[in-house]
Amino acid sequence: MSLFPLNQWYVAGFSSELTDKPIARTFLNQKMVLFRTGDGRVAALEDRCCHRSLPLSCGTVEAGGVRCGYHGMLYAPSGQCIEVPGQDRVPTKACVKAYHIVEKNHILWIWMPQELGVAPAREAPDYPWHDDARFKFGTGKYHYQAPWQLIHDNLLDLSHLGYVHLKTIGGNARLHMTADMKVTQDGDKVRVVRLMPGSTPPPTYKAAWPFGDTCDRWQEIEFELSHLKIWTGAVESGTDAIDDPNRGGFHMRGFHGITPETEETCHYFWSMASTRHPDMPENIDEVIRQTAFTFDEDRAVIEAQYRNMKDFGGKPEWVDIHVDVGGNRARRIVQRLVAAA
Ligand code: FES
Ligand SMILES: [Fe+2]
Prior knowledge:
With 341 residues, the chain is α+β, with helices and mostly antiparallel strands. It has 2 domains: 105 residues, Rieske [2Fe-2S] iron-sulphur domain (Rieske Iron-sulfur Protein, 3-layer Sandwich), CATH 2.102.10.10; 213 residues, Naphthalene 1,2-dioxygenase Alpha Subunit, Chain A, domain 1, CATH 3.90.380. Helix content is 21%, strand content 33%. Strand 3 and strand 4 form a beta hairpin. Helix 1 packs antiparallel against helix 6. The termini are close together. The mean pLDDT is 94.
């Protein structure tokens, strides 16, 4: 039985990461090499040459595929060896496992199958905001020494902003803890909406938008197995309705791709897109810088949390409070999908 949901698309990284070098990455305990061929195709293969097991990620990328860095066997994106230097015949068994990987909206999506070689059952998810001219986005990534679900918990419960992120997107802790919160579920998706009218604009908001003393803030979080979309922002108090999707003001659209590496570690790929105020057009760069700082703070908390869980012998019976509804629903979804894997 798999420890992770299978027959799912997961985030393997961002398109911009695939240059002329192969990348070694482990997803769901499966070691693989990611590369873009010289003629532009993206590929994900098992990271082990079938000759003498050198990782293919130690090799080089060419027009036709990846060449092993030991004795030069060349592998196509299909996983088939297509050249053995100094030998005319390529053994028919000379191949490695290949995974389905696609590029969409600047994101690399990998299909983690129950059965290798079977085509994905559905299209990779859409994330149109990376291709929307109204927004500009920046990206970042972390390798976490903590299991992936601790990040789900963190992102589905933004009440922590007032305690963890006072230097950037925090604001009044009590207001965050008492914000009206609505949690809904549609199949395997969970949505958490929190509205906070009459907030004090936190530092990141002030750096990016000419807010006065108070603003009306919204937080809309959507969980899917492989990623969360978090749309937050604020309007000047008493102007637009904060639950109107066409509201103006300052917007932060966060993408959070969280992919298990092992039971105890994971990859976290994020992007942040923001609108620009006509008088402060370059401040998106400051938003991205402060976002990276904010996510460093989250990592410090989550990794400390996990170290402590281990020191105390694993996951105990946790005591739930009112902010945990979204995270607990996500946990039940993951549990059900793991059981089906
Ligand atoms: S180990 Fe790869 S070609 Fe020999
Ligand atoms: Fe956070």
